[in-house]
Design goal:
The protein folds into three domains: 152 residues, Rossmann fold; 77 residues, Glutamyl-tRNA Synthetase, domain 2 (Orthogonal Bundle); 115 residues, Ribosomal Protein L25, Chain P, CATH 2.40.240.100. The two termini are 36 Å apart. It is 27% helix and 28% strand. Strand 16 and strand 17 form a beta hairpin. It is built from ten helices and 25 strands. The strands form seven sheets. Strands 9-23-24-25-21-22-10 form a seven-stranded mixed beta sheet. The protein has a five-stranded mixed beta sheet with strand order 12-18-17-16-19, with no helix packed on it. The longest helix has 14 residues. By secondary structure, the chain is an alpha/beta fold.
Length: 390
């Protein structure tokens, strides 16, 4: 891992070289004064001070107040593009750095650190957004001054994910993580790599997703379902099926046969089965209300008619083409963390007690989830899962 904050003195060395080559100068102009000069295409008074005095001004820069001076690159005050005229390479900042604290006050801009690092670290190819084209031009300007070989630079358009339910923002996520609103960078609302991994996404799925999008200079909108589809294909064959019921309510059965247990397949493509003991039957309150007055099938069990009181009258064991609803016999308290940070509570079948943390399974008719472990808080104990996708 390479940190720029560990390389600040290296940047200082190259700053001195630029001054000695008469390619950079210390500017004491205020932002407003410099803007007037830049807009009119006139040289800054600081620009033509001799090199010896510029080196002295550079030393004094380290003791000056924040905002009182900067080091500028001589890109040309008559350049056709006003935004490119004598760009800032170093500025003073008294903000505490998260790694090196207040060890340094004079910090390089992106283009300065990039120009030096991309050369010294032997970078051959650079991929960055269209919003950084200007920084790339400045970087190339510095490479030319030193006569360095230029890496290949590719700019790509903005990729916006459609269907995530919120705007993805690193700065906003950082604020929420620091404030404690998010549990950390692995909070699903950050959409960070850590959060995707904890939800149950494969690294290979992200690579394939990026490959499918490809590189384009145009801004594109990509449905998040495309990413889900790739991950689904990778985890489906190994994700065993289990039953989960949200907001459970006990189903009163009428004339139902006495069944000690039922054998249920662990996966449509596998021969293995597991036995589920039949005792009290729980279904979701939503299903109970939605299907009143209709015949439904309790998946893997039998068919019942739900009367207006929510009582299930046994009809048959025939697997007919009728609405199917999940059920759990007894069950274990379960919580599922959703991508929007909300929790869904319910019951899952007892077999989940054998899962190891990190296991990726599918709750039938609910979605793929990753088991995060058995957790206990002040009020309760539950099996916690993180939702991946349908």
């Amino acid at each position: 891992m390479i940190y720029k904050s560990d390389r600040v003195k290296i940047y200082y060395d190259y700053a001195l070289q630029l001054i000695e080559k008469d390619k950079a100068y210390v500017c004491h102009c205020s932002q407003s004064d410099f803007k007037k000069l830049k807009d009119s295409g006139k040289d800054c008074p600081c620009r033509n001070i001799e090199i010896k005095k510029q080196l002295e001004r550079w030393k004094k820069l380290f003791k000056m107040k924040e905002g009182s001076a900067v080091l500028r690159l001589k890109t040309g005050m008559q350049n056709p593009n006003p935004a490119f005229r004598d760009r800032v390479l170093f500025k003073i900042s008294d903000r505490e750095h998260p790694r090196v604290k207040k060890k340094y006050r004079v910090w390089p801009t992106l283009e300065m650190s990039w120009a030096v690092d991309d050369h010294l670290l032997g970078i051959t190819h650079i991929i960055r957004g269209n919003d950084l084209v200007m920084e790339t031009q400045v970087e190339k300007f510095i490479w030319d001054i030193f006569g360095w070989e230029k890496p290949e630079v590719i700019h790509n358009g903005l990729i916006r994910l459609e269907g995530v339910g919120a705007k993805i923002s690193k700065s906003k996520a950082q604020k929420e993580v620091k404030s404690g609103l998010f549990i950390g960078w692995d909070d699903p609302r950050t959409w960070s790599m850590q959060s995707l991994e904890r939800r149950g996404f494969k690294p290979e799925a992200m690579r394939e997703f990026v490959k499918e999008i490809g590189l384009t200079k145009q801004d594109v909108v990509v449905p998040i379902e495309s990413f889900y589809a790739i991950n689904r294909k990778m985890i489906d064959s190994s994700a065993d099926r289990y039953s989960f019921v949200e907001n459970p309510e006990e189903l009163e059965l009428y004339k139902a046969p006495k069944i000690g247990f039922v054998s249920v397949g662990v996966h449509p493509d596998k021969k293995e089965t597991r036995k589920i003991a039949i005792d009290k039957i729980f279904v979701s309150k939503k299903d109970l209300n939605s299907f009143k007055g209709k015949e439904v099938r309790l998946i893997h069990l039998f068919n019942v008619f739900l009367d207006s009181y929510g009582v299930g009258k046994f009809l048959s064991i025939e697997n007919k083409d009728i609405p199917k609803i999940n059920w759990v016999s007894d069950g274990l308290k379960t919580k599922i963390l959703m991508p929007d940070g909300s929790w869904i509570s319910g019951l899952a079948e007892n077999a989940i007690s054998k899962l190891k943390p990190g296991s990726i399974i599918q709750f039938e008719r609910f979605g793929f989830v990753r088991f995060d472990g058995k957790k206990k808080d002040k009020k309760d104990e539950a099996y916690e899962f993180w939702f991946a996708h349908r």
